[in-house]
Write a structure and sequence with these properties.
This protein is 59% helix and 2% strand. A hairpin with a 2-residue loop joins strand 2 and strand 3. It is built from 16 helices and 3 strands. Helix 4 runs antiparallel to helix 5. The chain is globular, with a radius of gyration of 22 Å. The protein has 2 domains: 218 residues, Citrate Synthase, domain 1 (Orthogonal Bundle); 104 residues, Cytochrome p450-Terp, domain 2 (Orthogonal Bundle), CATH 1.10.230.10. It is mainly α and 384 residues long.
Length: 384
């Protein structure tokens, strides 16, 4: 009698390992992240965020003339309606504990009622809507944060690029050249990542032939979760917890980590569904963030020293690499950005990828409707 062996079926929960469609926008693999044919390290070093936004939304590398036209179009759309300003003030003063991602979701929904092309899914209309959303999101973020801080919000500055204007709107201070460059790089790194949870949510909604604003609101809802966009917030909170706990107890970071492993705590900012050998965006952002920390001095650099220690222990003991959210948390923190705004900033970048995917879905659409394997009770008679 021949013995038979059965192999365990792969765990496909969360569509792990499943290819569910095609895209010409982005390629994610173990060694490269490519936006429309351009590798991420190349873009981070040589391109601006506006150039990357054009690449994603309009489909090719812009000429100098095209880039100038694109910048003018976006800058002209940065202002938000007075009614939205009133709503943002009310949320900041009457519901100040509301998460900024929820505020941003509400802001996008509000804008949908006043965009003259909201219900138009034609390619030209969707491209125009994409630019309007790209332009207005930093203004929404900044208006909400300045109001929370008890400051008078500022109007967008047409002389500043997207990244610098975002920082200006959030603080009312023109950022340094280094801060603006680091923010610009972070936006490039976060702009697109194929069928991640939020982008897939956008595509599912778009596949029903719903409108772009509705799909983007769905993307924001997905990105808000700590297992997706919210990971950068949680990664920084984890480092703050380690710093506080070790200072109080006198124990080492190694001891803190050993205890966390024993308690099976989820340590945020590590691991990735696709990248098993490390997220190549993480090293790029860490190097830029470290430049700011070193310029500021020991109190800022200590976060990167702590992060390096945590990263080394995770790699040694768990063989898990950091993802881009880990250095993002430290970088935004030393830049003085409030932790709850980390994920909205993600939206200020990823809106380009989302809108590109929404347009791609609408251009060659079939409703996304997968099947499920039933695992419930056996068939019964109601009157038995």
């Amino acid at each position: 009698m021949t013995a038979t062996t059965t192999s365990k079926a792969p765990d496909t929960r969360g569509l792990a390992g499943q290819t569910v469609g095609e895209t010409s926008i982005c390629s994610v693999n173990q060694t490269q992240l490519i936006y429309r044919g351009y590798e991420i390290a190349d873009l981070a070093e040589h391109a601006s965020f506006e150039e990357v936004a054009f690449l994603l939304l309009e489909g090719h590398k812009p000429s100098a003339e095209e880039l100038g036209r694109f910048k003018r179009e976006v800058e002209a759309e940065r202002a938000i309606p007075d009614g939205l300003k009133t709503l943002l003030r009310e949320l900041a003063t009457k519901a100040p504990k509301t998460h900024p991602m929820s505020v941003l979701r509400t802001g996008i929904s509000y804008l949908s009622h006043f965009d003259p092309e909201t219900e138009d899914n034609a390619p030209a209309a969707e491209l125009r809507k994409s630019k309007r959303l790209l332009a207005k999101i930093p203004t929404i973020i900044g208006y909400g944060q300045m109001t929370l801080d008890g400051k008078t919000p500022v109007e967008p500055d047409p002389s500043l690029g997207h990244a610098a204007n975002l920082l200006w709107c959030m603080t009312g201070k023109e950022p340094s050249e280094l801060d603006a460059r680091v923010m610009d790089v972070s936006l490039i790194l976060y702009a697109e990542h194929d069928f991640n949870a939020s982008t897939f949510a956008c595509r599912v909604i778009a596949s029903t032939e719903s409108d772009m604003h509705s799909a983007v609101c769905g993307g924001i809802g997905a990105l808000k979760g700590p297992l997706h966009g919210g990971a950068n917030e949680m990664a920084m909170q984890m480092l703050k917890d380690i710093d506080r706990d070790t200072a109080r107890s006198g124990e080492s970071v190694e001891a803190w980590m050993t205890k966390a492993f024993a308690e099976k705590r989820k340590l945020m900012g590590f691991g990735h569904r696709v990248y098993k050998n490390g997220d190549h965006r993480a090293g790029i952002l860490r190097s830029w963030g470290l430049k700011i920390a070193e310029k500021q001095g020991p109190q800022a650099k200590k976060w990167f020293d702590l992060g390096d220690t945590v990263q080394a222990i995770m790699l040694r003991d768990k063989k898990i690499h950091p993802n881009v959210d880990f250095p993002c948390g430290m970088t935004y923190f030393v830049m003085g950005i409030p932790v709850p705004q980390y994920t909205p900033i993600f939206v200020a970048s990823r809106i380009t990828g989302w809108c590109a995917h929404i347009m791609e879905q609408h251009a060659n659409n079939r409703i996304i409707r997968p099947l499920a394997e039933y695992a419930g009770p056996a068939l019964s008679s109601w009157n038995a």
